[in-house]
Amino acid sequence: MSDWTKLKSHRATQSETRITDLFLTDADRATGYAVAAGGMVFDYSKTLIDRAARQMLIALAEGAQVADRREAMFSGAKINETEDRAVLHTALRNLSGSVMVDGKDVMPEVRATHERMSAFARDVRTGIFRGQGGAITDIVNIGIGGSDLGPAMAVLALAPYHDGPRAHFVSNVDGADIHDTLARLNPETTLVIVASKTFTTIETMTNAKTAKDWMAKTVRDPGAQFAALSTDANRTAAFGIDGARVFGFADWVGGRYSMWGPIGLSLMIAVGPEHFDQFLAGAASMDDHFRSAPFEQNLPVMLALVGIWHNQVCGYPTRAVLPYDNRLMRLPAYLQQLEMESNGKGVGMDGNDLTVASGPVVWGEPGTNGQHAFYQLIHQGTAVIPCEFILAARGHEPDLAHHHILLAANCLAQSEALMRGRSLDEARKLMEAKGLQGAELERQARHRVFKGNRPSTTLLIEELTPHALGQIVALYEHRVFVEGVILGINSFDQWGVELGKELALKVEPLLKGEDAPGHDPSTVHLAELVREMRGE
Ligand code: F6P
Q1: What value does the CA radius of gyration of the chain take, rounded to a whole number of Å?
Q2: For position 292, what pLDDT does the model report?
Q3: I need a surface site. Which of 71, 228, 232, 454 has the fewest CB within 10 A?
């Protein structure tokens, strides 16, 4: 019997099992089904994973050779086989030592770029680097996907450490995005950072040109207030950005894994190179843990195995990421790209269709806001949605500690409510207490039943520091890696985004009223309607 079959058969025996029963039969479950490392705890006791399931999941990971693949990644082997590239974002956060790619140690260049970035960030922060109108007050990062989501998420997350210029992020090709951002800024004290691994992405290049035109209206040498983050030095030069302000990286850094290097420049300018280095150190500590801890005590491995259990074994198609931390507001969006662009694939490394589900839909919002929006469905809807709660024990506002206790109470209460639920008998008692009787009591009681037995996990950290944020992001990166290895897919390419990009270029002429053969009647009709509504 394959590991997958064993897991599914075991799951089939659990139709009557409640998570609460597992706590009754195992007095140590609360601690035995939690992994603690590096000052954080990942609690997965409120799931239906029992001893047998855990053993089977670990056997699945061992059988998929997660340990060998992990070493292959860290050592610079070309594990991104469909693009013939190494996968070395981990080299951007462990700046010591050497890593060989194609017979060359890549670390001297990584270190040199890191030093250049740090020096530039310091110059911007201290006013040594100036705009035409004086010290830089605002930076605008123009990028999309991996060239936007990571730094945008992290700048918000580390707001208590933000003492540099204000940071703005423009990603959407919708002119509203860049218009509304630039409208608030003074071009003479603004630094524009064009972040694009390829320097060809249409949204980014369109926004970059608009920003340059905007700046050129008042700034004599607009190019001097631009920096670029890219793998393509020829294209950045052609755009008119001096090499001194171009920070390059290699193709072995995937876009959605790139915030540790040059793509993190906006974050570095915002919080300072020292805090940025703490962020890198947090990630590097998670790398060490991932490489050395036994699977059962390994945070990324266990987070991945819980994910596999819920998605591929139990068949729950989505998972909600619910940070009880307002500053982690953009983490779900960041994780959507990280997880769904990495593992949303139907073909395995061997070129065959997957025989299990590809990665889940990832979504979420911070608590407590989500509680007043979509938690209704999570508690009483017909679909089971595994929830991943994230909570810091301490906030950054000591004089508002009572807010934080309420926040934490809500987080813990949600996972308890999801697991425990409320029985029909309990609901009937509530209705009796309200004076209801007979059929009406019964009818009203049924609306107040919570089936419970809904799984959740909790990631508990001490405080959302730069170090902790680095740990969290690296934790999720490695989770994606482990899940990808178990599914037998390449987590590091993204061919699925190409078709839409190609077709957008072919649809553009339709909207300009030009001849564009080969489109389906619906698309042609919609394009005509757009033109009609625009009065063309
Ligand atoms: O559309 C997909 C994608 O290639 C992402 O993987 C990437 O993060 C994003 O576009 C931006 O790419 P670039 O950094 O090359 O502009």
Answers
A1: 25
A2: 98
A3: 71
Q: Between the CA atoms of 69, 72, 74 and 76, what dihedral angle is there, to the nearest 10 degrees? A: -140
Q: Which of 197, 203, 289, 341 is catalytic?
A: 341
Domain 89-271 has CATH 3.30.1490.120: no
Cα 341 to Cα 495: distance, rounded to the nearest angstrom = 9
Q: Tell me if residue 525 is catalytic.
A: no
Between the CA of 326 and the centroid of ligand 1 the distance, in Å, is 27
The span from the CA of 471 to the CA of 325, in Å, is 16
Which residues have C-beta within 8 Å of that of residue 108, sequence separation ≥ 6? Answer: none
Which of 148, 153, 197, 253 for mutating ligand 1's site (highest number of atoms within 8 Å of CB)? Answer: 197
CA distance 462 to 495: 39
Instruction: List pocket residues of ligand 1, CB cut-off 6 Å.
Output: 144-147, 196-198, 201, 204, 255-256, 341, 494, 497
341 is a catalytic site residue: yes
- ipTM above 0.95? yes
Whether residue 212 lies in the annotated active site? no
Give 3-13+32-76+279-394+459-489's CATH code, choosing from 3.40.630.30, 3.40.50.10490, 3.30.70.670, 3.30.565.10. Answer: 3.40.50.10490
Q: Cα–Cα distance between 32 and 38 in angstroms, integer?
A: 17
pLDDT digits (tens, 9 = 90+) for 126-151: 999 999 999 999 999 999 999 999 99
Question: The whole model's pTM is what?
Answer: 0.97
Q: How far apart are the C-alpha atoms of 388 and 303, rounded to whole Å?
A: 10
